[in-house]
Amino acid sequence: MGEKPSAAELLRRSSGDDCAGERAGEATESVSAAQTEALGGELARRLAGGDVVHLRGEIGAGKTTFVRGMARALGVRATVSSPTFVIAQRYRGERLDLAHIDLYRLAEPEAEEPDLLADYRDRRTAVVIEWPEESALLFGEQARFTVTIEDLGSQRRLLRCQERQ
Ligand SMILES: Nc1ncnc2c1ncn2[C@@H]1O[C@H](COP(=O)(O)OP(=O)(O)O)[C@@H](O)[C@H]1O
Ligand SMILES: [Mg+2]
């Protein structure tokens, strides 16, 4: 006893719940980047084209790590990194494409063209947004899923996921 559960164990425990990888309203602890990727993968398998996922958490919490797991689960072969000079990147997947948007550097969304992100809205693309706080103006819709990642120190992270009812 006292051992940390594996990613597979965490996923098994939470299977059938409404926000893959995490029980509704409960938090799941991840103890490695690989585990956070696995949780991202679980969520991605539930996505349909047009779905939007909001990812909340401070710098270094593991948002991009989570996206990497989402991409892998969708069959993306390209390397997923933080978009540095672009705010959005589209990855070609098998079943779906994944649009990875990072609004961290978007200081003034009201100063942007309202259709800045229009290219990423289509029925074949699921969208995941880091720093979504300012996205309403540009994306105009609530997310289907909101994932919050909290850094508990060292490699420990607390993930919460909510699905819009
Ligand atoms: N349990 C964990 N989950 C996610 N990332 C972790 C974990 N433990 C350590 N890390 C490390 O923390 C960093 C998270 O970075 P990143 O995913 O870019 O965060 P963000 O996009 O939130 O700024 C990575 O270097 C990752 O390897
Ligand atoms: Mg990031």
Report on this model:
- A seven-stranded mixed sheet has the order 1-7-6-2-5-4-3.
- The chain is an alpha/beta fold.
- The protein is globular and about 50 Å long.
- The relative contact order is 0.22.
- The protein contains four helices and seven strands, in the order H-E-H-E-H-E-E-E-H-E-E.
- 21% of the residues lie in helices and 25% in strands.
- A hairpin with a 5-residue loop joins strand 3 and strand 4.
- The longest helix has 12 residues, at 33-44.
- The chain has helices at 7-14, 33-44, 63-73, 136-139, and strands at residues 27-30, 52-56, 88-91, 97-102, 125-130, 145-153, 156-163.
- The chain has a domain at 37-147: 3-Layer(aba) Sandwich (Rossmann fold), CATH 3.40.50.300.
- The model is unreliable at 11-17 (pLDDT under 50).
- Bound molecules: adenosine-5'-diphosphate (ADP) and magnesium ion (MG).
- The site of magnesium ion (MG) has 5 residues, from helix 3.
Write out key terms for the chains shown.
165 residues; alpha/beta; Rossmann fold; 7-stranded mixed β-sheet; 4 helices; 21% helix; binds adenosine-5'-diphosphate; binds magnesium ion
Outline of the structure:
This protein has 165 residues and is an alpha/beta fold. The chain has helices at residues 7-14, 33-44, 63-73, 136-139, and strands spanning 27-30, 52-56, 88-91, 97-102, 125-130, 145-153, 156-163. 41% of the residues are buried.
